[in-house]
Amino acid sequence: MKVLVLPSWYSNSYNPIAGVFFRDQSIMLAEAGMDVKVLSINAFSIKDFFRYGKLPRECREPLSSKITLWQVNILNIPKLHAVNFTIRALIAVKKYWENVRIWHPDLIIAHSYRAGVNARIISKFFNVPYILMEHSSKLYHHLSKTEDWLSNWAFKGAKKVAAVSKPFADYLSKMTGLDFLVIPNVVDVTGFVPEKASDVDEFTILQVGAFRVGKGTAILIEAFSKFLKSNCKAKLVLVGEGSEKTQIVKSREFKACYDNVDLLGRLPKEKMIDVYKRSSVLVVTSDIETFSVVVIEALSMGVPVISTRCGGPEWILSGVPHCTIVGRSPDEVCNALQIAFDNPKAPFEELHSLVASKFSKDSVLKIILPIITSVVPIKKNITWGK
Description:
The chain has helices at residues 20-31, 46-52, 81-100, 113-126, 138-141, 145-157, 166-176, 217-228, 245-249, 252-256, 269-277, 293-300, 312-317, 330-342, 348-359, 361-375, and strands spanning 2-7, 35-44, 67-75, 107-111, 130-134, 160-163, 180-182, 204-208, 235-239, 261-265, 281-284, 305-308, 324-326. It is of the alpha/beta class and 386 residues long. Helix 12 links the parallel strand 11 and strand 12.
């Protein structure tokens, strides 16, 4: 079976881990015996362009990944949503004509509504069915009128629509009147084994994610400041970059706990393994998350999680021991930190096993293959999950 994957964003030299779950799913399908190619149209802001001085270089996939990548990087024009969608669609059709047409895929899998628009146009011109998987939290409250219309247009043209968590699927079903299935992200946790660094004896709180509106980093910092009053040797580790970082670092609450905070910036996946080993608890303080790769990674390492009620993490953590769901207030987060501090012995192996049972390649493959084969008949070279 030939599958063309259209992601809305993908790994690039600005951010090598961008869209890692799109890549992991593509590799999973290739390992199952499908012929998988990826066509990525990455749009970057003018702010990013001036920050780095150039557009990111086009990436190539190593032969070991078993997938082929065609990538085009372009600038996004501020506020001109219809123009941006048109430019991306024209480039997608051009690249399809030049690189994909002769190969002719049996199926397109589009990730998020921006790529879904391109999928519907390609589907119409080249008669290829598509499945649209939604990932973007923008659909909760940030869409322009143009984006809202086009996202619904893309959803309605798909043979199947899916979301990455049940709360998100329920929301999209209600919003569109369509039946959204649940296909969780596959998370490659190769090397993520439940063990702790032997030289760590302090309580280390970890947060991983962009410094931007909606992530709630300020909530965690205020909670940590309160927590320090009774646990002065605790440490807070923040991994990530983003537009709100400067403002947060200059805040009074951050300065009050500065000596106990490590800012590590953006880290590649292989370096995150050691960070998790040295962490006592992962904290998510977002207002909305459709999924959470970092929650899966932390659990794979046997690290318990504290999360606000924000959708995806709640669904992932349902029934998981030694993990806590709280409201988005510094007091509730602080209280949860104290409970984690007082009960440090998490069942590492059990947390790892729970992740493997739901989000490993084999587990997700068993979910996605029946959906794929309901659109395109199964072929003998597909290997079902174990």
